[in-house]
Amino acid sequence: PMRRGARLRMAGLGALGFVETSYLTIQKIAFGGAPALCGTQGCQEVLSGPFSHVGPVPLTLPGALAYLSIIALALAPLVVPAPEEGDHPLEGVTKVGLFVVSTSMATFSTYLMGVLGFVIGSPCPYCILSAFCSFTLAALSWRGSLLPLQRALKAGAAAAAFTFAATVPMYMTARAETVNLAANPASAYKMGDAARGARQQLAAEEVSDDAAAALELLENAEIDAALKEKRAPKVLTTSGKREMKIAGKLREKGAKFYGAYWCGHCYEQKRRLGAEAMKSVQYFECAKDGQNSQAKICREKGVPGYPTWEIDGELHPGEKSLAELEELLGMM
Questions:
Q1: Is the pLDDT of residue 196 over 60?
Q2: What pTM was estimated for this model as a whole?
């Protein structure tokens, strides 16, 4: 039988992977993209771009289900009462199940790491953590499954071949979507939170449809130009009285704003405050390839992700609402 310790280790890794992929799935479904603390371009593209989903289903959802199945298969013989004599009736089937599922997960992680390294060319901490869990689970399963060698090789080859075959159409579809987005980079940049935030702001201000459409066209043109020039796009929204009060307090406290030119969350944060207010904010470009890059300062500060506010010497990562900024500034 598979050792109890091996099963518990697999269940623990499965729980870690399940928590991570469940969090990313909720973030994707509820907020439309990668977490605000996801501070690399690779992270943003893998979790928000064409490689993040199959149709309407985020890839993190089947990942979460796979990790959940690992937990169930690993713990089943330990929690279900066993007969007084002989092997546990669930021992054999769960060993095969763990072997097949973990091998499939490792194969899929190999595909994702290939996309990350050779297509996107930028690291993604969440993806690397998930790959570590998948590869370790496969290693534990191969080591502890105690399946006959010939049977193990056949089962492993079948699982890997099936998973690899499934990745081919997924890759082709994602590449086609990437080509389409490349023809209109503004649409890719404003996916998720930025686009939704713009619609909410426009609706709140009761801007006419014609004015909203005009603003959308201007912003798209500005974003296209900014991405090509690798600079942060200019903010075209107007600041109100509340935003200007916040800007005054930010200036008074010497607040700093850390972001990246390709970061949609950063752009939405700036839009929320408006052009006039953002003139009072000291902005640091953290992308290595960005215009006037200050990546060294960002590293020295230990900026965890984009956007990040520095207020009174403390770092506050993530996109903030006006109320949250007011609270951080002691205006409430």
A1: no
A2: 0.59
